[in-house]
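In this supplementary section we document a worked example of the pipeline. Step one takes a protein sequence of length 272 as its only input; no multiple sequence alignment statistics are reported here. Step two produces a three-dimensional model, which step three serialises into structure tokens for compact storage. The input and output of this example are shown verbatim.
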Amino acid sequence: MARKTESIGAQSSVSSPLEITLLGTGTSQGIPVIGCTCRTCQSTDPKDKRLRTAAFVQAGDLGLAIDLGPDFRQQMLNNKFSNVHAVLLTHEHNDHISGLDDIRPINYIYDREIPIYGSARSLLEIRRRFIYAFDHEYFYPGKPRVSGVVINDQPFTIGHSEIIPIPVDHGDLSIYGFRIGNLGYITDAKTIPESSMDLLQDLDVLILNSLRGRTHPTHLNIEEAITLVDILKPRQTFFTHMSHEMGLHQEVNTILPDHIRLGYDGLRVVVN
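The serialised model returned by step three reads:
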């Protein structure tokens, strides 16, 4: 599928623009769902084919992967990415961490260990699942080389880029979104605390989860996501983490305001 690049925000000669690529925009089952015969799953539109939600941010020479889901390998191949300097982990659910082992070729190509930034709880779970990747005393030639970096609610820096963690609530589970410059990335949220709303002001681009039309106990539905966008007022919003119940890409876009679009796998957005 040909990729489209959107350029949003005022041009600046002071710093390099951010570029985010939506590697995947589907839920934990992806689209099409195995055995499903709904219109979305049977669609021939490439924009209705959704791998599990993840993203890649290019900030100058810095490459940041957001989450490592089960489709990580295919997503990197599809978008011709390889130079990952660090991983930002939103939370520890399977559709966000189970592709960690596929980071191995990146270790080999660039001969470096890759840090994974996440909450203490998330890193404890990913270490439990992939203990061999984190245990430096356990060596065999084919294992991933990663390290865990615990983050809290304070900004941190990778290279020359400041990353602001955005605490959001995934039902009863507190997880992280991230702000990098004027780019905000939130997935799997149901509610956003007032203190986090303050951190999402004056965005050029917001990537935000929107599951479907019906309400859900742990995810924003489309009405709730639109209400949130109306409050935050980013210049442009792209929805992600969509289930097949959201409907067809082209049809849903016709009912959305111009400043809100459905994201799709492979969409690249430049934030100037």
